[in-house]
Design goal:
- The complex is a heterodimer of chains A (315) and B (194).
- Chain A is of the alpha/beta class and 315 residues long.
- Chain A has a domain of 200 residues: P-loop containing nucleotide triphosphate hydrolases (Rossmann fold), CATH 3.40.50.300.
- Chain A contains 14 helices and 8 strands.
- Chain A has an 8-stranded mixed sheet with strand order 3-4-2-5-1-6-7-8, with helices on both faces.
- In chain A, helix 6 packs across helix 7.
- Chain B folds into 2 domains: 74 residues, Orthogonal Bundle (Helix Hairpins); 98 residues, lambda repressor-like DNA-binding domains (434 Repressor (Amino-terminal Domain)), CATH 1.10.260.40.
- Chain B has 194 residues and is mainly alpha-helical.
- The termini of chain B are far apart.
- The longest helix of chain B is centred in the N-terminal third of the chain and has 23 residues.
- The radius of gyration of chain B is 25 Å and the shape is elongated.
- Classes of the chains: A alpha/beta (315), B mainly alpha (194).
């Protein structure tokens, strides 16, 4: 397995999907668990990876006890083989690698190391690796998002969640630029853009590309190519009314117009009492309430992701 | 037409083949997206930029709607639309100032009211004769006779009173007193002619 994976070489199988969103407590772990469960039910071999900083609880979402061995053990060489930290969930084709809170935060591993870890996971007998990224927009989290073949950005229809999602997108894109660019002048502009109050007045990726086109025109094409290849997919969770689901289309349009980012709308999940009732009982709502609206939404989302479909505004 | 409107279609995220219905839907979508405090845009745009975006969307919508509602402007017309193009021009837009069906304080013109003073009052308000004809259902020809004081061409006085009253009402004039004054200048009706 080569490092070229980081450059987005897509393989027909063995895909890494990540679920981020910047804000905590909006349902990323629940979505990871239920989406993984559904994909497994559809016949895919799935490995869930909990990379939630300080709040690893994917095992709880699956109704499991705290796993004894974690990915941290593998990274710190306490476990020699990645198989040793792989946990069966009790559901066919669905396995788990727990992050157990010491993985990313304390380890602070470097980018090539992250690629290596993911490649080891990908080398397992698996069709889809689902990464639960947890909250935040730190490089540790963003790098995993960028390494993935498919990046899901979860939001709930609330101001803080959407602000965080935009921050996540900007940070991820600038990080992507930073990884691709070698030109010192352009690097300096990217660094400047990271400070929202930069004197150059660069507020969005579009401004940054314009500034690069002005000052180092020969480098602009590279940024544009990186921009075009960055395709986050939105998932709107806790939809209570029709207008909430509409926000997904608005986010896609706003990203295109004001950030220059070509995102898509993967799907939405309704707010559903059945979910928290199941969470309380430490059971999967997909199992406990398979006919609930949320369970049906997750099933639909899994199908469209596998088939590469997105929601489109019908005009 | 589509060349001139290309940027408006783009503003609404549409291609120039879009129908009126699509223009309407796109407008509703973007109006909601750029609404004051709208979740999807408030943190990306400042209040002024949001307002600017709303204005641009609204402008694009109104221009395209107007263009699409008047298909005779287009050179490539289907047969039914071609017929519509030959039909008489659409009625003049109604100036809002004359939608005074029951004025609170009816005006009076200086005595005696003549055809010329009626015309002057109408023109001061910028009201087309066709517009009065539309409201009163009185033919433009008869209205012209009233304004031209062409009394010989006017219909019987019993109708004339009604016509002048309707005309006066349209201009916010006191109907009865205007008609009285106008008719007072006419020769007394010959009982034989009835």
């Amino acid at each position: 397995m080569s490092e070229s994976l980081a450059r987005g070489v897509v393989r027909p199988r063995r895909q890494i999907w990540s679920i981020g969103g910047g804000k905590g407590g909006i349902g990323k772990s629940l979505l990871t668990a239920s989406l993984g469960w559904q994909l497994a039910r559809m016949g895919k071999r799935v490995i869930l990876v909990d990379s939630d900083l300080g709040g690893a609880n994917l095992h709880t979402c699956l109704g499991l006890a705290n796993p004894e061995r974690t990915l941290g053990d593998f990274i710190r060489r306490r476990a020699e083989r990645i198989e040793e930290v792989l946990v069966e969930t009790g559901f066919p084709r669905l396995r788990l690698i727990s992050g157990a809170s010491d993985f990313l935060g304390a380890a602070n591993i470097k980018y090539p190391q992250k690629v290596r870890v993911l490649n080891r996971i990908r080398a397992l007998e698996v069709d889809i690796v689902l990464l639960d990224l947890g909250a935040g927009t730190s490089y540790n989290i963003i790098d995993f998002f960028l390494i993935s073949d498919l990046g899901l950005l979860m939001v709930v229809p609330e101001p803080t969640s959407i602000e965080n999602a935009y921050r996540f997108i900007k940070s991820a894109l600038y990080r992507r630029f930073r990884n691709a660019v070698t030109h010192d002048g352009v690097r300096a502009l990217i660094e400047a853009a990271l400070d929202q109050k930069n004197p150059q007045g660069i507020r969005t990726p579009l401004d940054l590309v314009a500034a690069v086109a002005r000052e180092h025109p020969e480098e602009a094409a590279l940024l544009k190519a990186e921009m075009a290849a960055f395709r986050p997919r939105f998932v709107v969770n806790q939809v209570r009314e029709e207008a909430d689901a509409e926000i997904g289309y608005q986010l896609v349009a706003a990203c295109a117009r004001h950030l220059g980012v070509r995102s898509t709308y993967a799907g939405f999940v309704h707010y559903d009492e059945a979910v928290w009732r199941s969470v309380r009982q430490r059971r999967m709502f997909m199992v406990n309430a398979p006919r609930s609206r949320a369970a049906e939404d997750v099933s639909r989302l899994a199908r469209s992701l596998v088939q590469g479909e997105t929601l489109r505004l019908s005009l | 037409m589509s060349m001139a409107h290309a940027s408006h279609y783009e503003t609404l995220g549409l291609t120039s083949e879009a129908t009126l219905e699509q223009v309407e839907k796109a407008y509703q979508f973007f109006a909601a997206m750029y609404e004051d405090q709208a979740l999807a845009t408030y943190s990306l745009l400042g209040p002024e930029e949001q307002l600017e975006a709303r204005t641009r969307i609204r402008e694009a919508y109104e221009i395209l709607k107007h263009a699409l509602e008047r298909p005779q402007d287009d050179s490539q017309l289907a047969a039914p639309a071609a017929l519509a193009a030959q039909a008489p021009p659409a009625p003049l837009p109604r100036p809002t100032s004359v939608r005074i069906e029951a004025p609170r304080a009816p005006r009076l013109l200086p005595e005696p009211v003549t055809g010329a003073s009626l015309r002057e009052a109408r023109e001061d308000l910028g009201v087309a004769l066709q517009h009065i004809a539309e409201i009163t259902k009185i033919g433009v020809r008869f209205l012209e006779y009233i304004e031209g004081d062409r009394h010989k061409d006017l219909p019987a006085l019993v109708y004339l009173r009604g016509f002048v009253q309707e005309y006066a009402r349209c201009l916010g004039l006191d109907p009865r007193r205007t008609a009285d004054s106008y008719l007072s200048r006419l020769p007394k009706p010959d009982p034989q002619s009835r």
